[in-house]
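It is worth pausing here to work through a concrete case rather than discussing structure prediction in the abstract. The textbook approach is simple: state the sequence, then state the predicted structure, then interpret. We follow exactly that order.
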Amino acid sequence: MLKDLCEKYYQDRNYNCAETMIRAGNEYYDLGLHDRDMIAFGVYGGGIQTGNTCGAILAAASILSMKYVEKKAHESKDIRPVTTALIREFNRKYGSVLCKDIKPQSFKPDIRCKNTVETACDILEQVIMEYEDRKTGKQSNSADK
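Step two, the predicted structure:
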């Protein structure tokens, strides 16, 4: 599970929310990013360092881009619907996609934003699974979870 890899990067290696998501996503989905590439995502942590859009969400959206965009996002038929589903699920869970709104709901000093990162993993996996099921015409089992 993606969440297991996030544990490794967040707790064991002390990466921020965005760094954790992109590193775990790179490993889990075999995205082909190199260490240097992933450094670019560090600034997303803490809501782009300003409490704005949650870094875990931004990195999750970046994982979607790596999975579904071949060359240009505006030429991809997949990226908009799958990203829309990601944002919708975060809004449903937290009522916002802003770090400044999410953090008070899940931050704990001893584990920092671990709960948000785990939620991001669950949402990302769910969104990808449901989207892939729709593309292939399968019924999703997410209602059973």
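Step three, interpretation. The two ends are 15 Å apart (CA to CA). The CA atoms of residues 120 and 141 lie 19 Å apart.
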